[in-house]
Amino acid sequence: MEYYNKVIESVNVRFIRGNNFRVEKPASVTDYSESDNTLILLHHGTLKFGEDQELLNEGEVLFLPAEQKTKLTLGGGAKKGEISKDKFQENKKKYLQSISFREIKNSEDDCISILGFESKVFDVVNFFNSLGIPPFIIRFNDRLATIIEDLMKEVEVSNVGKERAMKAHTELLVIELLRHILKNRLFLEELSTNATYFKDPRLIDLFNFIKANLGGDLSNKILAKVANVSEDYVGQYFKMLTGINPQDYIEYQRMEAAVELLRTTKKSIRDIGKEVGYKDTAYFCRRFKMMYGVPAGRMRRRDSLINVQG
Fold first, then answer.
1. Which terminus of the chain is less hemmed in, N or C, by CB atoms within 10 Å?
2. Is it the case that residue 308 has pLDDT exceeding 50?
3. Listed residue (293, 218, 299) closest to 261, CA to CA
4. How many CB atoms sit inside 10 A of residue 91's CB?
5. What is residue 57's DSSP assignment?
6. Contact (Cβ atoms closer than 8 angstroms) between residue 58 and residue 49
C-alpha cells in the first residue's frame, strides 16, 4: 500500500478539457485516440469500443490512456459509417453537438461527457500512458461518474474558486481511478513492471532535492552527490528513467515556479529570476520568452487581466 501512496503523492494532475455532447449522427471511428488521458461518461444511448465492440451501459465510463488507439462507436442505429479519426475531427460538428449538462439530464438522445486530464510523475512521465495499459470500461463505479458530473458542472459556471474546485475534483478523479484499478486488480503487472521511477529511492531523492533547491546550484556535480552516482553517469541515469535530461527538467521546474510567482506575487522580474536560480535577468527573460512565447512581464499582465475579468 505504501508503494501506491508514493504513486499518488508523486503524480501531478491537471484538468485539460471537458465537454458535453449529443450524438447528432452515429459513427464508428476506426482509430480514435486523444493526446490526453480521456474519460467518456455515457449518459444515454449507445457507446462501444475495441475490435470486439464492447458495449457500455448507461452511467459507465470508458477510460482512454493518452495516445492509445481504439475503435469507438458513437450512437445506435443501423447506419453507422466507418471513418478515420482525421475525418471525424474534420467534421466533428456533423457527429457531435455541444450541449449543457442540464440539457443532458432532460434529453433522451445519445449523450456523453468527454473529459481530458494530464497526470505526470514529477511533471515528467505521463503516468497512465507509461504503463502501457489499454482502454477499458469502468463498471459499477458511481463515485467516479459523480466526480465527472461535478467537474462538468464546474466547467459551465463562473463561480468564485472555480479553478481550485476543478483542480480538487481532478485530483479526486485520478485517486478514484487508481483505486478502481487496484480494487479490481487490473493491470497490476503493468503497474509493477513499468513504474520503475517509484522503485529507485535515488530518483525520488533527486526529484525532491530539485524541488527544494530551485534557486540554488543544481549542476550535475551536485545531483551526482544526491543520487550517489558519478557525475559522468547522473545525466544518463536520470534520462534512462524519465526520458528527459536533468538540466531540461530543472529549467522546466524553474520556469513553472517563475510563472507561479508572477501570478501570485508583486515581486520584480529580477527578483523572481534570482529566486528560481537565474542570476542573469536578461538570460532569464530570454529563456522565459523562448519557453512560453511571451515576455515575463506580459505573462503577469495577461494573468492579472484574466483574474479581473473572472
1. N
2. no
3. 299
4. 13
5. P
6. no
Could you read off the pLDDT of 236-248 as tens digits, one per residue?
Answer: 998 887 778 999 9
**pLDDT tens-digit series, residues 26-73:** 999 999 999 999 999 999 999 999 999 999 999 999 999 998 999 999
Is residue 131 pLDDT above 50, yes or no?
A: yes
Question: Quick one: which of 300, 294, 252, 248 has its CA closest to 276?
Answer: 252
Query: What is the DSSP pairing of strand 37-44 with strand 47-49?
Result: unpaired
For residue 63, what are the CA distances in angstroms to 54, 92, 138, 144, 274?
13, 20, 7, 11, 42
Phi, psi of 232 (to 5 degrees): -70, -25
Looking at per-residue pLDDT, the higher value among 84 and 242 belongs to 84
- By CB atoms closer than 10 A (0-12, 13-18, 19+), residue 74 is buried
Between 23 and 244, where is the model more confident? Answer: 23
Main-chain phi, psi angles of 97, to 5 degrees? -115, 125
Tell me the per-residue pLDDT of 173-204, one tens digit each, with 9 for 90 and over.
999 998 998 888 888 777 666 556 666 778 87
Which run of H or E residues covers position 232? helix 231-242
**Is 105 in contact with 58 (CB distance < 8 Å)?**
no
Q: Are 156 and 165 in contact (CB under 8 A)?
A: no
Cell reading at 191:
503497474
| Secondary structure, 3-state, 107-147 | CCCCEEEEEEEEEEECCCEEHHHHHCCCCEEECCCHHHHHH
Instruction: State the residue for C-alpha cell 526520458.
Output: 243
Residue 110 dihedral angles phi and psi, to the nearest 5° = -65, 120
SS3 7: helix
The model's pTM is 0.74
Q: Decide if 272 contacts 261 (C-beta within 8 A).
A: yes
